[in-house]
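Two proteins were folded this term; both appear here.
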Amino acid sequence: MKRTGLCLAVLITAGVSLLALAAPSATVQNVAPESLLPQTAVIALHFDGDAAHRPAIEQTAAWKALEQTGMRARVFDLIETFIATQRSDVASVVRSALEGVMENGLSLAASASADGNSFAPYGMMVVHNGAEHLPALVNFVVESDPRIRSSIQERTVDGRSIQFVAPGPPGVEVAWWIEGQHAVLAGGMQPVEQIMACAKGDVANVVQNPLWSELRRSDGFTVNLLGWIDTERLLNQFGDLPFPEPPKSGPISIREFVDLFGLVELQNATIQGGYHETEMWNRVQVRRSGPAKGLLKLLEQRPVQLDEIPPLPPNTDNVFVSSFDIRDAVDIGLEILNRAVALGAGGGPDEFAKDFEEFQQTIGGHPREVFSAGLGDLFCVYNDPTSLPIPIGIGPVMVASVEERETVRGSIVRLLDLAKKLPDAQKLQVRETEKDGSTYFSLIISGSPIVPTILLNDDWVVASLMPGAAQNFAARLNESLPRWEAGADVQAAIRELPSEFSSISISDPAPGYRSMMMWAPMAVGMLETQILPKISRRDSQPQLPFGIQDLPSPEQLTEPMFPNVTITRNRDNGIEILSRQSVPSTPLGNVGAAAIVPVLVALLLPAVQAAREAARRTQSKNHLKQIGLAMHNYHDVYRHFPQGTVANPDLKPEQRLNWAVELLPFLEQQALYSAINRNSAWDGPQNKVVADTAVPVFQNPSQRRPADNPGSMDYVGIAGIGPNAAELPIEDQRAGIFGFDRSTRIRDITDGTSNTLMVSDAVSPNRSFMQGGSMSIRGFSQQPYVNGPDGIGSPHAGGFQAVLADGSVRFISAEVDPKVLEALATMHGGERVGDF
């Protein structure tokens, strides 16, 4: 196991450092990188590098905007500086290697075997002309972990000096060497021998693959990037093998599993990239070998006409329009679910039918009717940069076509009513108003600076972050505001692209890059004064190798840019995505991306965090429900609830196993339960490994836990009232359901199961779900009871969740009367339980 982990570390470090582990060899004859890749590659990627197409690439807008202005050099400066915060002696070497890949290229491949007949899977990476960067990186990697040096072996194959580590069965290894001027890293079963067979011509190389021949050429642009995933070959080679995790209904093949999603007809997915004059081009194709069904069917939508585009703001810099049959999508999704359930996924057909019925009751109808009824099949997302009160350059707006207005209105009302039932829904108010023939739904969220708005009229339904965007849309409909029209650059792009498409994306990268450069001086200052000093492991703080004046001005950077246009179109055997770009999009898109960081995050983070916390709280509630159900199933079998700690007179309660261990067989964790030594301490030698196993149902998703504490538990049993509540005899009026040596029956709970706490959230996680004693059983002894000294509480705002003895889960406010909590904590105290 140690050798396997060590070799994986070698492989990862080598890949990140571009074949860091390598040694010079006597081989001097240069070879074409593609001659090392097998014809049988099921996954392949080949990048020529800039040097191979220098005249073409220097004509592109991307080269003029990013290279000639020095922008790409500044990005590499940042990468080098961040690496230098950890290891200054390797930063420049890594930068040189990265620049070498950009200049000279890279090739990747994976195959079941080079000859296509045997089963000997392997993968490889070739760094073109990468040998010169390796000696310094070798020293860095070896010095960072002496174990690597002791694990490296060496042998000679066909005159090449091969270094390798062998982590597993015979023939399985990770190896690296220099082939001509290229550096090669390979891993798998006999990878060296299989690559050498390609190099010598004993087996066909990737050039003989029809996909290579097809993708190497293009009528529209000079190709410098190509790749594919050959799913048909994968299924032909592995489709009849059993799926690794068979469903409850019995073993199925990989082909049958893939067919669940309608992907068995997927032939391949390919990519091409390149240049033509000032433009960058990309082509992605997804091809099938049979009829479209399942997820493949969703890819092929009806053609869209430009005059179908809804009225857009004239200053929008980003728009996406697509047809999409949402009814078909719902039907296909349900079909996939039903087929999976028929194979035994989840709880089986009966449980799925019950859950689906509850889901329909929750949302107010069948998903097809709730989510799609009355809607058309045209959808649009665009940016209205003037719609937010702070001019940050972003204002996303979503639009869908409408076929039946009243039906859509009913769906909106049902969904908003559902939203009001979510946690913290008391902070949400919905106001419905009519204006100029349109209906507006305004969502007022207490404490939020945004007012999400839905507009509905006879033709469109619009959703925006602020009412201004919806009002602007309505004004453009009645022509009281100007509309967007395709400019000369966009029209030129559309003329070069196919005239028929099912989706189109038009984005102007200039505003995003311009905003990024406007914020750059502030970002550089924060890097130097706040970020670099905190992350550096060196005594001296690394300095950025450039000043603010070395950054290109916003106008320098954006002057060569023009709008990017991407279309998707149907082909006879699949779909094709064509993209004509001036420069790549900014990391967060083309809608004032840089401004999002300092401003939009401040606006939206509270709402996003609230939504995430609501989801986590709901998931935690489900965990408590499962624990409550397991408690009752245990009671049905043993006629009492689990004892607070597993009985063991030779151990103190703090050493014993926790009550949660007894629930494992009732939570589909029988294998884990069988691995536990019930006669040993929870952290005894045999139990230690199990104690560090994460059991998701015992963990609150909102709880933070250290990385070295994976098996912790976030819920505690309620012992009653007082510091010694867990030690009280069962007849004591202060006793709760759990005690170190108590076994409680339902008939012992004379206060009523719906009025008695059984398990609750804890303020912080314990060491392990197996840990007994006061870490897993707690009583109320000191006020404040919620999030106080007893550790009963939660990371949730406003209170905690608990499962009652009847199995129901309640959210208990932090402001609850302490007397009410005391009444809930006891099982036969005779107290009156008030509101909670």
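Next, the second protein.
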Amino acid sequence: MPVSNYVAFDLETTGLSPDQDEILEIALVRFENGEPIERWSTLLKPGKQVPLKTLRLTGISAMDLEVSPAFGEEISDAIENFRGSLPLVGHNSGFDTAFLQKIIPGFPGVNVYDTLELARIVFPGFKSYKLTDLARTLGVTVSEAHRAYDDAQVSGGIFRLIQEAADKIPAVTKGRIRSIMGNDWEADHLFAPSQENLPAQPGLFDWVPPQLEDIRPLPQEPDAGLRNRIMDLLERPGRDLVLADIAGTSEALDTVVSCALDYSRTHDARILLIGFPDVYLGQEIGAAREPSDYLCLAKFHSAMNLAQEGGYGTKELSDRRFLASLARWVDITDTGSFSDIQITGSLDLAKDLSCPADVSCRQSCPLADACFAQMAEKAQRPVSLARHDRCMSIVGRWDRVVIWNFHEIARAWQWREAKLDPTGLQSILEQEGVLESVPSLARLSKHARGAMGRYGTVADSSLQDLLAELLLELKGTAQGSKNQALERAAASLGHLLDPAEGTVMLVEEGYGEKGRRPMLARRALWPGSRILSHVGQNLGPAILMSPLSGTLRCSAGLQRFFGIEESTLKDNLRHEAETENVLLVLVDEFPVPGSSQYPSYVSGILSNLIPGHRTGTQVLFSSRALLKAVYELCSKDLEAGGVAVYGAGIDGGRKVVEHLLDEDSTVFSTGGFPAYGDPVPSCLVIPKVPFLPPNPLDDLRRREFRGSGVDPFAEVNVGHAALAIRAHVERQIDSGRKCAVVLCDPKALPGRSGWAASFLEHFADLPRATCSAPEAIRRIAQWTSGENTGK
């Protein structure tokens, strides 16, 4: 091994900020010849109270911390004496180094090897690089995760495996990795050519990343009634559009996939499943991907030549790490699909190296026979999966197209709509040194910024004229440049100027490092009809499945938005759901709290509700601002009572919902549809009806409803707010448990607002209780414990 003696280190801290948080535990493990021989660790007494969730995560007790020493010169000397002049090893070592640099002068003073960075390069294609997941995949023993000593020893063991595997990487690949990362990379010598001139090898060593064991097994005997319904849907004539009300459960998913496989076999049919989780990918089910999902070998080799010439020296470190991972991944991948490797850094880098969407290069490419996209096309299986956001760009024709959770597809469509960031384009042109060749960009940016201040205005004709002028200038500039970002910008401009029927161009508000910035976007006014038209014409006859089809019945606006006609709803195949197990509690508060008092009002309810319902409570906020304000008001009191509060955007991303079923824990999250596999709350609290912020698209949609005899606000705004909540309620219904939904917004009560009646119509099938906050808390406790509160 190039580095046989080293010290692995790890910290446990109170949080993620070296400036605001403190170290709770320091551990060092000395390795000789890749084997652990000695350890040193200590707990540290913090200067402030440690969050309850941190104590639970680390397994450290508050009592142990209280009797531990504070950091001082004695501990600093002990650390320095133990590590000596040996190099350091850590997992995501930059995090730990940043904390120790604040308290130990001159730290680290030696090479520091990051096993997270190195594992991504040496072992590309793993599903997770979290320390415990990486250890499990590589067979490294983990005895007590999230304690500093164990994590340090695990990272040290992984470092040994990384060196052993790196030694067997082909010499050409090693050279590519070193060229990409640069001469000043601390790990450069780990990839130096070995004394033996090793030939290219097909694998890492004698080991293949485990994948097939993660495939979800299908049931041998699915529910007969549901199976018959699904088979009837597949047997219908292909020209019919069908909306099926299917429960959003794992059992229902399994049944649909099982039926699709059976129908494909018995009818020699090709079926596309859109929106199904990739746990079903296996020998019989493949992935339907667009050509741009695959690595272009010609572009890859050009990039490697550029790397050898030092062309990536100015790239961000995260981009260089991804390129290095890619260089190793090419040796071992069977698919060449970017979905099989974690993309770190800029997504644009992957786009630059992907196959063109129209595969126009096949006739002239010298590597066409090895083209990943072409091989995938030839090997396509009868049943294929695709994500919601890819259904507009994949190529192929199927006998049946089944869209799961159809209510999510419009949101996915919006991510694919044409947009342009003038500020980002200016940065690209400046880097290329060609900004002066595109003078219209400055005028466009100024015009767009002025329009942005007028509440997301629909773009006027003068702005469109500027875009047309910019497109001509940009095309001329892009022809003389190798920067593919300019080509993408030109393509986006072309889509923005396309006056497609049912679309409108907007000036929206975006945010960057320098604050607010204008964004140009072409949006579909009623995206559902465009999506269904595209699917029917380009992919195949569609069967739509959603547990929320009943909600569509209550709103003409939702039907229009999703492109569902009344005739389709009449033919709707509904599932029988037991709604009597979910109680809707409306909190009656008068007078209604104003915006400045609202966080205190919600905090008061939660501070009394959660201690009596300590596990399984999810609070679904309408905005991050309200979540943060309520979190600051009540989290400390709840923690003092032994209930840990996990807030999205504070303690992590949307994955904080994983803590929902932890004992004595509650989760604060923002709205949106629940994800596959998320735990189901037994008590769902809605502090405020989640209306979207004012936007010009909704203005235009309401305008089309005026004079039709319906309330435009109810049809356009209320329906979407109810749909977001109903998605969570359906999961509670399907769980079969006694659950509660607490709506704290007093304006949702009948008579308090013009929209309350139409909003509550979406929940008319649920048992309901309207009462004060103290009474609501009592009724919820009775209900979830099995007592009947009445309707």
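Confidence is low (pLDDT under 50) at residues 197-213. The longest strand covers residues 23-32. These notes refer to the second protein only.
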